[in-house]
Amino acid sequence: MAYGASLVINRGLEEEFRSFLGPEGISTDKMDLVTYGYDATRKSYSPCAVVWPVETAQVARIFRIASREGIPVYPRGSGSGMTGGALPVSGGIVLALERMIRILEIDTANRTVTAQPGIFLGDLKKAVQEKGLFYPPDPSSAKVASLGGTLAESSGGLNCVKYGTTKDYVLAVEAVLPDGEIIRLGSKSRKSVSGYNLLQLLIGSEGTLAVITEATLRLVPFPEHRCTFLSRFGSIKDAGKAVLDILNGPVVPSALEFMDRMSLECVDAYMGREQIAPCEAVLLVEADGFDPDTVLRDAQTMEEICRRSGAETVQRATEPEDRESLWEIRRNLSPSMYQKAPFKFNEDISVPVAEFPAVLQEVYQIGAKHGVPVICFGHAGDGNIHVNFMCHTENDPAAHRGIEETFGLAIAHGGTLSGEHGIGITKSEFLPLEWGEREIELMRNVKRLFDPQNILNPGKIFPEKKQGTT
Q: DSSP character for 6?
């Protein structure tokens, strides 16, 4: 749509926003516009203003003004997204939720927590852990990822293989529609089949249908005991076999992560020393629970499976500091990739777990075919592979062809374009690889129903003309 003339915030509108947001609640300063115009994709667009609400009523009022003036609004958490979901591709207003950080309630009797969307996920997890409770979703960016961003993408992370993803833990939300109306969906009840499941429609919708301003999340008891081990393999094939053997075994790991040789080389360079003896691949595996003997026995069972599958060595860690040093390697993988090349395309295909070894091998073949280095790591336990095409220019045509073939490969094996990053702007052109015209039109109709003016995060998921890129 053609947005209103207010794509430039005039003095009158700025004062209207300031009247209820306060003097520090809106900025048109060039430095702020630059800062809030980019995200982890390293792409940049220029908004005309940034606003910082602290409560739901302010968010609603922002949208009433935006709806009246025809101004697009782009909700933003911490800007750690990998597909451009928060980028203001048509100018307009960035709705920065970083000041909405309150934990409103930790209900130990019902094992729930209610919080605002701007809180860092790591801070939320720490707060409930102090009460003996556990919020399992754990993306590697948890220290800097906002709760709202993880709800928008239905984030997964390290614990998915045992505990599931974000969508499995959301009980209720308060949200603001693009016209400024406040809605409430779900309840603390663990069961509900009352009407359509509008709650789950919002989770993973990438901030295109409504803005969640409060979320009530299901918690589980915190598993006090953990045992982590790292297995080194001389071949990708052996590591892939170990993944399937573990998943077909008697123990469900709480984490099962894969890293290849080049990813380990990048981490070594990034951290300034050799972290793991050279090998072709490693699996980082963890068992957790409430009885230390059972946890140790479960870990030993999986260690033996790795050895039978061809592991060269197995390194066990039971002490917190030793475990943390192993997980620090995994958390540093994504930023360390820039040691290999100035640009990377981090795709997060997901396939049925039985297809993981075959798809992994074929991904490397695609990279070799197009002459583009490919680095792979990811959540092997649920078939979620982070495929990184390493490039020297942002518009590398060979990498683009490789990415398209990789998406086609994932679909051919019964998988999907994205396991946890979403579609955003970087994958929108590939959506027809996974969905037919009718399915995509149904999605567009849902968007029109929630947002008939198309002012909430326009230009995302579906291919649309994007303006103002730098």
A: G
The alpha carbon of residue 10 and the mean position of all alpha carbons in its chain are separated, in whole angstroms, by 35
Amino acid identity at 84: G
Contact 210, 95 (CB under 8 A): no
- Report the pLDDT value the prediction gives residue 464, as an integer from 0 to 100: 63
Indicate the average pLDDT of the chain.
95
Kindly give, in sequence order, each residue whose CB lies less than 8 Å from that of residue 299, ignoring residues fewer than 6 positions away: 227, 228, 229, 285, 286, 287, 316
Token readout for 53 is 């609400």
Q: Is the pTM of the predicted complex or chain greater than 0.85?
A: yes
CA angle, corner 144, sides to 110 and 385, nearest 5?
A: 90
Q: Which residues contact 91 (CB under 8 A, 6 or more apart)?
A: 3, 7, 45, 46, 47, 48, 72, 467, 468
Query: Shortest CA distance to 451 belongs to which of 61, 63, 50, 76?
Result: 63
- Taking only the tens place, the pLDDT of each residue in 211-265 is 999 999 999 999 999 999 999 999 999 999 999 999 999 999 999 999 999 999 9
Sign for the pseudo-dihedral over CA of 137, 138, 141, 147: positive
Instruction: Quickly list DSSP for 270-312.
Output: HHTS--S---SEEEEEEEEES-HHHHHHHHHHHHHHHHHTTEE
Rounded Cα distance between 358 and 354, Å, is 8
pLDDT in tens, 412-470: 999 999 999 999 999 999 999 999 999 999 999 999 999 999 999 999 999 764 444 44
- Give the mean pLDDT of 350-375: 97
What is the three-class DSSP state of 20?
helix
Residue 328 to residues 141, 256, 331, Cα–Cα distance (Å)? 11, 15, 5
DSSP state of 350: E
With residue 437 as reference, give the H or E element that holds it.
Answer: helix 437-450
Task: HSE, CB side, 13 Å, CA atoms: give it for residue 196.
Answer: 3
8 A C-beta contact, residue 344 and residue 402: no
Q: Please give the single-letter amino acid code of residue 434.
A: E
Query: How wide is the angle at C-alpha 421 spanned by C-alphas 372 and 398, nearest 5°?
Result: 20
Spatial CA neighbour of 39 closest among 144, 160, 176: 144
Q: How far is CA 136 from CA 54, 125, 155, 163, 396, in A?
A: 26, 8, 11, 6, 37
Residue 1 has pLDDT above 80, yes or no: no
pLDDT tens, 185-197?
999 999 989 999 9
Q: What is the pLDDT of residues 106-123, one digit of tens each?
A: 999 999 999 999 999 999
Which pLDDT score, from 0 to 100, does residue 61 have? 98
What six digits make up the tokens of 281?
Answer: 């691949």
Token output for 369: 């075919």
Locus of tokens 């360390």 = 336
Return the closest-CA partner of residue 370 out of 413, 339, 415, 404.
404
